[in-house]
User: Fold these one by one.
Assistant:
Number 1:
Amino acid sequence: MEYRELGKTGIKVSRLCFGGLTVGPLQANLPLEEGAEVIAEAFRQGVNFIDTAEIYRTYPYIARALKQTSKPIVVASKTYAFDRKGAARSLDKARKELDRDYIDIFLLHEQESEWTLRGHREALEYFYECKAKGIIRAVGISTHHIAAVRAASRMDGIDVIHPIVNYKGIGIIDGTIDEMLQAIKEAYDRGIGIYAMKPLGGGNLIRNVEKCIDYVLNIPFIHSIALGMQSIEEVHVNISYFEGKPIDDKILYKLKERKRRLHIEEWCEGCGECVPACAHGAISVREGKLHLEDEKCILCGYCGSRCKNFAIKVI
Ligand code: SF4
Ligand code: SF4
């Protein structure tokens, strides 16, 4: 496994980052022991970097996997907190549930532009203070917006950006993949650590998995790539691919055939609580029923975090 310095953070990360969303309740919903074992196997095989977020509800899996390794693992998490109180609550929750004194990388989740960054200024200031005290090692943002990458890269104090990158530009909200790459390069040139998300477009490009991974691996200004994994088989395939080793064709075929989709349960009440969680405009309530536009859905599963009835999830 190749490792790279994440910009100027002084943090060295594996090129493959374990995308923590997939094992948890918003997606595969693996039993705790099984999900932790998938993560632990990735750590055993050389992955030293895992990405999660408060809304993914995967801290228990990660905490359990961390207990199984003596290697130093870099953990990144994200929060929607915008004020000091929310930021403190979010960071404390991460430290407590991950059983860690510090969090390596703490990000503002789903930033959109200079304006949302301004709206989160209080939270950011709090995180800068925590960084000075050693409770956070690097501060940053995650985003599907080119405008947010541009705004964050010009701000003092932003160490890391976690942008969406895939060859089709699926999930980029305000422009093309070329424009996104231009903005990312600008950030990289300023010494910001870049780890990309959704190289497979949230699973939509799974049939072209080799093309997807080659595309992101060949971008010289991306330090690491977060990839969701939900089985040990998938961990082995991804690690082999990142290390340039041959992959068993049968296993690759099986993974490519695993079609993922957003499932709405029959007990959905059509209340619309989940609709604002979708930045892609893929769900709406029409005549009292939740309506999905498949072609807009990037299978992120964020809508599921808003449903108290557990009526919507990626399967
Ligand atoms: S999925 Fe849940 S939150 Fe969304 S409309 Fe149905 S019941 Fe409401
Ligand atoms: S509908 Fe749900 S899974 Fe699909 S893009 Fe929107 S939030 Fe993500």
Number 2:
Amino acid sequence: MRSLKGDFSHAINLLVEKLINLRMLVEATLDFPDEDIDFLAECNAYTQLDEIVRQLLNVFESAHQGNLLRDGIHVVLVGQPNVGKSSLLNRLAGEDVTIVTHIPGTTRDAIRQHIEIEGISVHVVDTAGLRETQDAVEKIGIERTWSAIEQANVLIVIIDVAQGVTEEDRKIIAELPASLPFIRVFNKIDQHQLTPRVESHDGYTDVYLSAKSGVGVNLLRQKLLDVVGWHHAGESVYLARERHLVALRKAQGHLDLAGKNTGSVELLAEELRLAQDALSMITGKFTPDDLLGEIFSRFCIGK
Ligand SMILES: Nc1nc2c(ncn2[C@@H]2O[C@H](COP(=O)(O)OP(=O)(O)OP(=O)(O)O)[C@@H](O)[C@H]2O)c(=O)[nH]1
Ligand SMILES: [Mg+2]
């Protein structure tokens, strides 16, 4: 682990070094307009920027894979009462961890279970079915469903295949956090002799399965890993924390804007500064004085 961590900061430091180099050119263009050199053209600034963007993408990918290995995935099962959420948790866990009955509203508390898929840690939460209710205990259960959803990386929205997507299902989906990926599971296919399958259309990923008989559950396991972006490649992984991923994403966003601001050197300079700020959340601070120091140490200007 220590060596993986060392590799990660090394990769970030290399990126920061390249970014400083580029910022130096851009800032020198801004600060010393009287010099007769076009620093940006002279040093292929935009090729350098492309190279940094490409490298950052690689680092992000390795950090993302490592983060999945390190922290696992948080999956929450949601849906109307009686669609088979608890049955699916039991099936995934391979044991009877939660009560299943034909009575809607059986599960009232969030039930957590840890499983593994291809060596990836998966924390699954079964929840109280979502519906309008006057029952005080069930109401608290439903509140807990929503707080579990806030902690999730990915949701499984379970739908009874016999009913299809009902108005209530649509309402549930509409209320989910927009940025959270989800898989729709059409459950109870055994009752209708349907074949287990995965379908993708209109931006949805649908898995047809039976929690009761177990057919199609392997398709869901595989899809879960796909949705969170796990692809067990043999390349290097960095055991990054979630906050590292956030910082890398932020840096990516600013580099993206930097690439689009080719008309304005000021905006380019600003986006590069913000990108480096984001990376320094991982590596430590770098001040404007440090940058000026870099400029003077490498160029013989302004003195
Ligand atoms: N035939 C069939 N029945 C199923 C399947 N999955 C669940 N059921 C049945 O559907 C009923 C409800 O299942 P649960 O797993 O308790 O449903 P739930 O979504 O957890 O329900 P709540 O806890 O009330 O929200 C039970 O009678 C299950 O046996 C399935 O794949 N096929
Ligand atoms: Mg239940």
Number 3:
Amino acid sequence: MNPAEPKPLLETMTWPEARRAALANRVVLLPVGAIEQHGPHLPVDVDNRIVTWLCDEAARRRPDLVMSVPPIHYGFNTHNMGFPGTVSVEVEHFVNYVADVCRSFVKQGHKRVILINGHGSNAMPCALVARKIVNEHDDALAAAINHWNLARDLAAKIRETPVGGMAHACEYETSWYLHLAPGQVYMDKAVADVLQKRSEQIWVDLMAGDGPVAFIDDWSRVSNGSGVEGDPATATAEKGRLYAEEEIKNLLSFCAEFQAMTVPPRRNYTARGTDPNPYHDA
Ligand SMILES: [Zn+2]
């Protein structure tokens, strides 16, 4: 390979190459996943596989713009510990660990970090980590994306599952897996399931937003045992390919904007600061 060509993945770089990646202001894409039950038809690595592929493929297509780094494999997952094959990290540990990983890239000279999250329960802690990084640094920005949000418009056009029930090991996630690794999906074991409805105000839907009440109970209490939330039988590899392409396109477009985003200095308008403000005498 031509040594002048930027490599897509950090793990294959030497340290001089990693330094050049930071000097070139390449946006760091950090995949954040989970090892978690995904029904009787999908392997437990669904979230990791999708986000790692997404980040790696984005970097393969635009190595001048982004760099993919090794993933955070384990997530915040206490609600699924009743199902075999699930691993959970306490939320405080998760936030501190992921923030340390992000800080490392900033210390190495990167100015933009994006957490690409693949697991619903990581969403809030990932957003929190991104905010911590922004709060702590004057010249570095971090953001968090739940990857499914990059395909919301497309989902509204192609989904077959009614709104309110496409949440886990569902039409969407199964389609993704059929696109990436069809040989590992047991479609004959793909069963439709919905969590027991306990209120008109509570539902979870990856693609259409959740209900007004934030309430996640232990899944072993509300699932009828499959671990699925949705209808994986309607999944196809073609839907997965469409989702993958849509998400790559929207991700790269955001990365270009994020890289170019200006970072003005912070101001202190309080009685302790000296920055002028036209409203001081209002
Ligand atoms: Zn998942």
Number 4:
Amino acid sequence: MKEAIVLAGGLGTRLAHTVSDRQKVMAPAGGRPFLAYVLRDLKNKGFEKAVLAVSYKNEQIYEYFKDEYLGMKLIYSVEKEPLGTGGAIKQAFRYIENDYALVLNGDTYFDADTDALFSLFTDKNADIVLAAKKMPDCTRHSTIKTDSDGKIISFLEKKENKDGYINGGVYIIRKSVFDSFKNGRFSFEKEILEKAQDGLYALLSEGYFIDMGVPEAYFRANTEIPLLFGENIFKAAFLDRDGVICKEKHHLYKPEDFEFIDGAVQAIEELREKGYLIFVITNQAGVAKGLYTEEDVHTLHSFMLELIRDKTHIDGIYYCPYHEDGVIAEYKKYSPDRKPGDGMIKRAIEDSQKKGIIIDLESSILVGDKLSDIEAGKKAGIGKNILVRSGHKEDLDSHIPDIITDSLATLTDLI
Ligand SMILES: [Mg+2]
């Protein structure tokens, strides 16, 4: 029986090779917990049992996965106190029947060839084999040097700004390497890996690798991971900018005048966690009217994205600089992009298709503070078109919107 240990929990149980220790196994990718994909990958690779090394705070994980997932048996090895990576693996081995197991991080996905890892483990009669991932830039990682036989000669400190192989955090480990360690807290990397003399081998791999501990990668995983597993249908939230995300200020273009509406950033993150891709669609007729330039629009958007960089992610920003009553000749024209036209929504859909993503309009939403926003959403065929009262206060004798609510912050409970 193929058995795996997945480090999915407590503080310090993360195999160190990254910049952050944030627990991300339950962070969503495409609306599903990241760990679900890690487990599905194990199932696809023929594993029948996974021991999840979790902290005592494991309710969220247990409630989602219970004792079996996709027909794979799950056992929970609960850390009553932080055990470090070494202690966590040693404890989890109690539930392993073989005298070895695949060991991996629950918040990293590395498409390593586990069959090849097992072969190397057997052929060399190794104690530990690890899957090493080729990286174009190893500035943030320590690198691995091997001999021609695959045997690891050394771990080098992070400093080289060039390509190399890093520890991908996927191992086959022989249970007996823990024999001389007492139960309790210790580091697998420092106490075992870096001190190992013999029996330590690496399988060099160029497989897909993503680490949820790195914010940039965490946001990227949202689409990349589902796509990797053949899930290409996404829902999207199309958000107007002024009066929805930021406070309505007449012809806003200066970063110093930019102000988020209360709760908007948090609401965007909640939408993202519910599996929505986030697109901003905004009319910017001020360009046609000569009040500011397209460059000013870009500057403001870069400023906005910088403010939210570590908090949430926007998948695309579309703006329409045209207006029929403009004074700048090149922008003085009708454009199907200008809401109530649905051109910007269509462009977001087309750009997504180029990345292999299909937007399911029926389950998508649009949020605006004007009826022209709502009309654009209706025209495009978006399932729910929501009017918020946080910007321009529309006269509401119209029943066009599907939902009317105070702001983005009050919306997330309604959908
Ligand atoms: Mg608006």
